[in-house]
TrEMBL record:
Name of the protein this chain belongs to: Flagellar motor switch protein FliM
Entry keyword set: Bacterial flagellum, Cell membrane, Cell projection, Chemotaxis, Cilium, Flagellar rotation, Flagellum, Membrane
GO cellular component terms listed in the entry, alphabetical order: bacterial-type flagellum basal body; plasma membrane
Domain Flagellar motor switch protein FliN-like C-terminal: start-end pairs: 254-324
GO biological process: bacterial-type flagellum-dependent swarming motility; positive chemotaxis
Keyword Cell membrane applies: yes
Location(s) in or outside the cell: Bacterial flagellum basal body; Cell membrane
CDD domains in the cross-refs: FliM
GO MF term list: cytoskeletal motor activity
Protein family: Belongs to the FliM family.
Length: 332
């Protein structure tokens, strides 16, 4: 920014040139307008918003924590992994940025289409291999001549590593990662067209005194079906829905433990208090309830159901016939 600030001498010289006619003010305006034009490279068209990139970063920070636990257990040493950057760029640019000979784990994530590649720096890959074989984690680069045993050990190690992708992506997609190939030469790896936009997640990894990079390259075709789920609005809706589901479940649990009084009324009648005092065994009270009409079943004194009286296993019982609609009285 400081290079754009003019000194007092430069300001005086500019004013002098304008006053003497050596410089035309209109030409100066035109020149400034031309400077505002920026060259746009359509080969590097951005297909992911900053919002989506931030959510991809959050997802792969969880993946980095899972990888840390997995590699620490497999290699029996302390491993440190964290997300260094998340960028979108053409596939061709990604291929040019990685070493000419490296470890390339190609895997699929069904049901999503396309393939993802996890590139592991040779220094890190051989440090891992040395730990697996009982060494101290020393690194040496002979990636151009992997033996069959080394290939088998690395394949088994990275097959377990990519399984953690499924857990990290669980919030946006249910995937089942499958390691399909292990390559060492990027030139032989043609997953998508050179101009296809890919997201590259770079991880810093440290094993003892050895440090390096792991890069995950995800083509746009893989992420396209789940792009809407990478927006902040979706994440907020998911959190809101989860909270509502939790509240509803808690409310249902509380209701199930509530004690209510269920009362079936056979009918009602009005008498004087003096008649009540004179009642004796054998007296009959006429009820307003007809024998062919359903009785009212109350829940905590509120008319809730209509039912009929009967017997079940030699005991008095009430069969529920229908629910009383809100606002319908027991006299109806």
């Amino acid at each position: 920014m400081s290079s754009e600030v003019m000194s007092q001498n430069e300001i005086d010289a500019l004013l002098s040139a304008l006053s003497t006619g050596e410089m035309n003010a209109e030409e100066l305006k035109k020149e400034q307008a031309e400077k505002r034009v920026r060259v746009y490279d359509f080969k590097r068209a951005l297909r992911f918003s900053k919002d989506q990139i931030r959510n991809l970063t959050r997802i792969h920070e969880n993946f980095a924590r899972s990888l840390t636990t997995y590699f620490s257990a497999q290699l029996r040493t302390y491993i440190q992994i964290n997300v260094a950057s998340v960028d979108q760029l053409p596939y061709e640019e990604f291929i040019r940025s990685i070493p000419k000979m490296t470890i390339l784990n190609v895997f699929e994530v069904p049901p999503l289409e396309g393939r993802i590649v996890m590139e592991v720096n040779p220094n890190i890959a051989y440090a891992m291999l040395d730990r697996q074989l009982g060494g101290r984690g020393s690194s040496y680069n002979k990636i151009d001549s992997l033996t069959e045993i080394e290939t088998k050990l690395m394949t088994a190690l990275f097959e377990g590593a990519i399984e953690n992708i499924g857990e990290a992506w669980d919030s946006v997609a249910k995937v089942d990662p499958i390691l399909s190939d292990l390559e060492v030469n990027p030139q032989f790896l043609q997953m998508v067209s050179p101009n296809e936009t890919v997201v590259v997640i770079s991880f810093n990894i440290t094993i003892g005194e050895i440090s390096g990079m792991i890069n995950i390259c995800i083509p746009h075709v893989v992420l396209e079906p789940i792009i809407p789920k990478l927006s902040v609005l979706y994440w907020m809706e998911e959190k809101t829905k989860a909270r509502q589901d939790h509240e509803i479940a808690a409310l249902k649990q509380a209701i199930r433990g509530t004690h209510l009084i269920l009362k079936a009324e056979l009918g009602s009648s009005d008498i004087y208090f003096s008649e009540l005092l004179d009642l004796s065994v054998g007296d009959v009270l006429p009820l307003r309830q007809k024998i062919d009409q359903p009785i009212i079943v109350k829940v905590d004194e509120k008319p809730t159901f209509k039912g009929q009286v009967g017997k079940l296993n030699q005991q008095m019982a009430v069969q529920i016939l229908e629910e009383i609609e809100e606002g319908v009285g027991e006299d109806e």
